[in-house]
Amino acid sequence: MLSELQRTELPADPMLPRPYRIQRVRRELPGTFTWELAPANGDLPSSFEPGQFNMVYVGGIGEIPVSISGDPANPEKMIHTIRAVGQLTRAMETFGRHTVVGLRGPFGTPWPVDEIRGRDVVLVSGGLGLAPLRPAFYHLLQEREAYNRIILLYGARDPDEILYRDEIKQWRRHLDLDVEVTVDSALGRWRGHVGVVPELIKRVDFDPERTTGLICGPEVMMKYSAIALINRGVAAENLYVSMERNMKCAVGFCGHCQLGPHFVCKDGPVFRYDHIKSAFSVREL
Amino acid sequence: MSHNRMRMARGDLGALIAALSDRGYRILGPTVGDGAIIYDELESDTDLPVGWGEDQSPGAYRLVRRQDQAVFGFTLGPHTWKKFLYPAEERLFQVTLEGMSFQPEAPAGVKQAFFGVRACERQALSILDRVFLENEHVDSGYAARRRDTFIVAVNCTTSSPACFCASMGTGPEHRGDFDLCLTELLTPKRHDFLVEAGSAVGEAIMKEVPHCEADEADVAQAEKQIEATAKEMSRSMDGDNAAQLLSRNLEHPRWHEVADRCLSCANCTMVCPTCFCSTVEDTTDLTGDHAERWRRWDSCFNQDFSYAAGGHARSSTMSRYRQWLTHKLSGWHEQFGTSGCVGCGRCITWCPVGIDLTEEVAAIRAADGAVAATSKAEDCHA
Ligand SMILES: Cc1cc2nc3c(=O)[nH]c(=O)nc-3n(C[C@H](O)[C@H](O)[C@H](O)COP(=O)(O)OP(=O)(O)OC[C@H]3O[C@@H](n4cnc5c(N)ncnc54)[C@H](O)[C@@H]3O)c2cc1C
Ligand code: SF4
Ligand code: SF4
Ligand code: FES
Q1: Of A18, A51, A84, whose CA–CA distance to A264 is shortest?
Q2: What's the topology of domain A4-107?
Q3: d(CA B36, CA B77)
Q4: Taking CB atoms and an 8 Å limit, are A284 and B315 in contact across chains?
Q5: A63 C-alpha vs ligand 1 centroid, how far in Å?
Q6: Which residues of chain B are within 8 Å of residue A18 when distances are taken between CB atoms?
Q7: Which band of pLDDT confidence, cut at 50, 70 and 90, is reported for residue A40?
Q8: Atom from ligand 3 closest to the CA of residue B261
Q9: What is the pLDDT of residues B347-380, one digit of tens each?
């Protein structure tokens, strides 16, 4: 009855991880670390698009979704920045160089970096939300002339929690980039902005008519950043957010990631804001 | 109804089972067990629930003896065919942790025959095919089991008070997509089956089973019985309009009202022929070098289902019931181009408190656009 299937070989099992070896570990912040991974068998890693994620498997314990935070033009370095928050991520924090983990992916929808050429791009991120946006930012830098204004707004809890601090410093030196950092609270030597990220949106210069916003961070931060951009005159259909939900498969089989009619794993994680707006207005959707 | 109909005597049903068995099919079908009609392996036609029927109502199910010797004189029990394609627990892979060497499960191509698939259940299988086969990714285990599954369909000649397939357009009559289709022709004077072949394999198998060509009277009797079954169904749901209705009523007070009754027990999702959610579990052996990953059925009614970032996205029963019903009747259309409900009524019968989705939809429709007081208060803050 299933003649299609009878004739063809079964496709590769999307639930089966491949072994990847940790090549380098970088301690970013207390509890936050970055892995550089490569396939343990010497193969090339799969290429990826900015905003996509992998499922990272730790033998016998579990598997979690983690965004790819490296440079899409350099896919041979598979980069993940991870914050230790619970059982699995705390175990991962103890792993050193040469540890082998399992990886499946990449999965999910990308930031629309190609569709938005020629426009002003405002990247808004909070906390670890900078990690999934970094591949998009790398791409914009490489193709700098293809875009108009590029603005990166980043909010951290306090000055000690600023992720990718050295890189941010470098980016701030570029004359053709506007990179602004704010912290929720600061004591002593901090000279920068204090306040929440949406506040920064009011201060920077862009042309709302031709602006696309890429937003990634905790849900409340994304909601108020989207509202702030809309209040500045950016159309909701030019805003993109990256959503997080529990995921057990990443391929549309397990149902865990559902958000309204969407599967966050395959219809997202990156969504056009106006397609996912009810997630921000309806409680417990 | 098409031509090429055959008539097979009730006494030759065993020959049909034997013919399938001779071709290497494992035969799975309805049988009496655990005080209900369940789906299990059949050895002969004597394993079928001959002479059994059932009493069903919201929250209640009871086997009853029929006055006659009908073979398919019952409707649906708590089991569904999905367990034979998508088992309740299944190992996904094993791994040797030293060096992380993964051993995939080689999905064994099982030859199995589903004996007695109702029209609503056939539609449920098509829906599962969309989830696991016709998606961007193909589920290897499901595909391996599905491709050698032979379907013996049965047109319903009786319905239960839980059934509402007629209003959903999914039954009681099959419309193709089977290998063989049976309609039981039972009167005090005769006991036969009208048989239709829907595939070359089905035709070939019938060559090994005694039968003759059906006559017009046979076909007319089958049609009459199926029509009467459709007519006697009192329950109904407007499935097509439910999609928009629910998606525009996410803040309806009825969700809170049904949540007061719902126990969040997950029974409805376990008996539903289309619910496909699962979770995974990782285990290690005592040596610590061998790990396995298992997949098990899960339910959106389980609290941990939506756990992320230190909290549960859906912690209230209200949000979980709403998730189940809006997914089934609304989200499914966007995801798979079909309703996720086939009108089988199992979730009504097997709900311990008798919650009836058709009633819930009707209640929301009766006050379309109403907004719960709690949601209004929430809006003011946003
Ligand atoms: C698309 C996507 C991209 C992500 N990218 C990153 C990233 O780049 N870096 C990073 O540090 N984290 C990222 N996360 C979050 C990360 O998956 C969780 O922090 C992680 O699952 C926590 O696992 P745990 O076992 O340590 O925590 P526990 O609190 O012990 O959680 C137990 C289980 O709940 C689930 N869970 C808990 N929190 C989350 C969550 N936030 N999202 C999804 N499932 C969760 C997981 O199945 C987890 O194993 C991402 C999540 C998603 C959905
Ligand atoms: S939702 Fe209820 S009636 Fe509809 S298919 Fe599932 S179990 Fe049957
Ligand atoms: S609707 Fe009924 S069967 Fe479903 S979870 Fe609630 S109480 Fe259980
Ligand atoms: S993570 Fe399993 S369906 Fe999306």
Answers
A1: A51
A2: Elongation Factor Tu (Ef-tu); domain 3 (2.40.30)
A3: 6
A4: yes
A5: 9
A6: 102
A7: very high
A8: 7
A9: 999 999 999 999 999 999 999 999 998 765 444 3
